[in-house]
């Protein structure tokens, strides 16, 4: 029988790529999104229910109508800087929004959820690579909202039997290799789209924040994972939840770090033009190196990041940048 997944935030960057992965595997896909930061034209694999996850009446109605085997929860605000200047917005949307979703799920008898979490819950790393047992000590409200949700899922599992998987992403990057969907934020804060823009438009330079880190070239090192690999991990985790239930946490990264200056070189190599670059001071709280251990996901989910070579990530992002849908959004 066809399995059904209800995807909150399915019009967003990672959510839309996961919708495609589920649909490609034969699942029926239902998207719930208020379109505050997502894109209507990214909803291509099933119906869109345009509402906020805090609208319990409509969310419960969708759950009762479609009876999903699984909820995949991506709906969240995700700008670290914004979370610092307006934490109330983040706690209301991310944390209270998830509480409302969980209560709608309980009322509708839906008891399996995949949660889009983040490595920001770890804070400044005490060791690298970071495994799931690393202490969670967030240094910004965004990271706190995600960590609190993970605790909520543990408690809902213990008290109500709700099964969950929390997937802690490192740096999501790249775009659908088929060019159907891609990455576009307003404002854009992710490094690769900004570097591509700086290569195309020298009057819009990319700022390297910090060249005095204790790394080989002095710039910060991050673990970039292709969004298609993230989507595949969600599919595998969803199938595992249906088979066995439980409460689980997995890191999603590559185990390989790429420095900001190495990323600039990769964009120059693939784009055929060097990004215009400015050099700024370190941002407060920026750790020198964030790299994941994905051994647990490999062992328990059978997952490996097979699409996350940095040149391929940049190539797919560049291809999307030239796609008509991306052009329409940039002029939006």
UniProtKB/TrEMBL annotation:
One of its GO terms (molecular function) is UDP-glucose 4-epimerase activity. The keyword NAD applies. Keywords: Carbohydrate metabolism, Isomerase, NAD. Its cofactor is NAD(+). Pathway: Carbohydrate metabolism; galactose metabolism. The keyword Chloroplast does not apply. InterPro entries: Epimerase_deHydtase, NAD(P)-bd_dom_sf, UDP_G4E. Signal peptide: none annotated. Residues 5-253 form the NAD-dependent epimerase/dehydratase domain. Pfam families: Epimerase. Its EC number is 5.1.3.2. Gene3D superfamilies: NAD(P)-binding Rossmann-like Domain, UDP-galactose 4-epimerase, domain 1. It comes from the Bacteria. One of its GO terms (biological process) is galactose catabolic process via UDP-galactose, Leloir pathway. It catalyses: UDP-alpha-D-glucose = UDP-alpha-D-galactose. NCBIfam families: galE. Belongs to the NAD(P)-dependent epimerase/dehydratase family. Homodimer. This is UDP-glucose 4-epimerase. The lineage of its organism: Bacteria, Pseudomonadati, Pseudomonadota, Alphaproteobacteria, Hyphomicrobiales.
